[in-house]
Amino acid sequence: MRRFQCYIDGKFSDGEACFESIDPASGRAWAEMPEAREADVDRAVKAAHEALYNGPWARTTATQRGKLLYRLADLVAAHAGKLAELETRDTGKIIRETSAQIAYVADYYRYYAGIADKIEGSYLPIDKLDMDVWLRREPIGVIAMVVPWNSQLFLSAVKIGPALAAGCTMVVKASEDGPAPLLELARLVDEAGFPPGVVNVITGFGPSCGAALSRHPKIAHIAFTGGPETARQVVRNSAENLASISLELGGKSPFIVFADADLESAANAQVAGIFAATGQSCVAGSRLIVEEAIKDRFVALLKQKAEKIRIGSPLDVATEVGPLATRRQRDRVEALVASSIEAGARLIAGGASPDRDGFYYPPTILDCDGIASPSLDNEFFGPVLSVLSFKTEEEALTLANDTGYGLAAGVFTQNLTRAHRLMKGIRAGIVWVNTYRAVSPIAPFGGFGLSGQGREGGMAAALDYTKTKTIWLRTSDDPIPDPFVMR
Ligand code: NAD
């Protein structure tokens, strides 16, 4: 079995305990992971705090930070193949996707390397003649970063990149499900030459490791990605240290198809939107809202595509859908499909776990027109699409917004004015028109409502890891007048 370690204060070490990581393709243990508990968390946060205020990082210029980030980007690119294989092995995400995604993760680090020396303060046109007033932008402090199992290298890069650009230090908690790629990333952080304590990488379980990290008194900000229920616990934890918090949560994203759309293109995007990554994608377009006139034709096209999808070993480049990351997740998807069918949903494709080792579940389509199916309200985080139909544009918009979530939406139409009306009317942080699941380091990413708060990606994300300090300098040599009058 492979063994992984935590990275704390520039050193690799075992955790207070350890646990086995399960290969989702076989259902068998393949690696031993370090389990960080309260004492490890405390050590990591203290190392980050010391690095921020007293270590060499405190005297590192923004330009030097940028150079270190460029070095990390190059190392990620050079080791993308190895990292991809680890992520595939530990989470079951197919190698086709992990290879492409991790090569692109290097570009996220590059983007933030370029931003490091472009975070500027400002001079204020203050309303007093004898005062000069500036705003300095300073790192917000020690950041707790908590990520879920899917795309751990990607979800951590959108936090680590801007936080380092801003000069922060951090403790990154990898998910207990599939932590291998993130623990391996620590080796590249070390090789890039970041001073000890700047980036610490640990893993462990939510109620022990995650909770101890998010309520630690030396944490200034929590950058959390995960489900809404865990987010509520993290927000409660933050009541202790009063840390600021950004939340990237789940979704139940609508995918709207009008009769005038290019149906082949829309069907391919819908397949990408719900079956890629075996549906374990926060932006999964899990509610198809299709114009009634083309519903049968479009759903038949989707069924045909879904049934042709190659299910297999995630390490095989020909595989299109691999296993779900955990047994717990597969069982949850199975149970939700069963309760939806019980509520009246009609099964169009998939719907039964194949008889093989590993946590596989097939691409599944449920027709939910006219019924209150649990599949319409609950995020599966699995390859399950619920179908609804509409007659008018107004009805399509009402159905799209009929959710507490608001992460993403897709609109497929050739009608430009209608596309504009919908992109304004849909309540979601991202609207894709005639495309789906496109991301970039340059474009902000984040949700409305239960999908979270704060944005990752783009320049603003780096500014979010800073706080302003207001500096007042009196320019008069005259003695200060009346001390009892505020001026
Ligand atoms: P989760 O909420 O169960 O776990 C996420 C992380 O939180 C894990 O590292 C876990 O150990 C930790 N955690 C659990 N309990 C904790 C606690 N009490 N205190 C602190 N940390 C704790 O999420 P998951 O099931 O691993 O991932 C799936 C969820 O993540 C889905 O809802 C998905 O939509 C969401 N997600 C969102 C985005 C986004 O950018 N919006 C991206 C990917 C995944």
TrEMBL record:
The active site is at E248. One of its GO terms (molecular function) is oxidoreductase activity, acting on the aldehyde or oxo group of donors, NAD or NADP as acceptor. Residues 16-471 form the Aldehyde dehydrogenase domain. SUPFAM superfamilies: ALDH-like. It comes from the Bacteria. Keywords: Metal-binding, NADP, Oxidation, Oxidoreductase, Potassium. InterPro entries: Ald_DH/histidinol_DH (IPR016161), Ald_DH_C (IPR016163), Ald_DH_CS_CYS (IPR016160), Ald_DH_CS_GLU (IPR029510), Ald_DH_N (IPR016162), Aldehyde_DH_dom (IPR015590). Belongs to the aldehyde dehydrogenase family. PANTHER family: ALDEHYDE DEHYDROGENASE-RELATED. This is Carnitine dehydratase. It comes from Rhizobium tubonense.
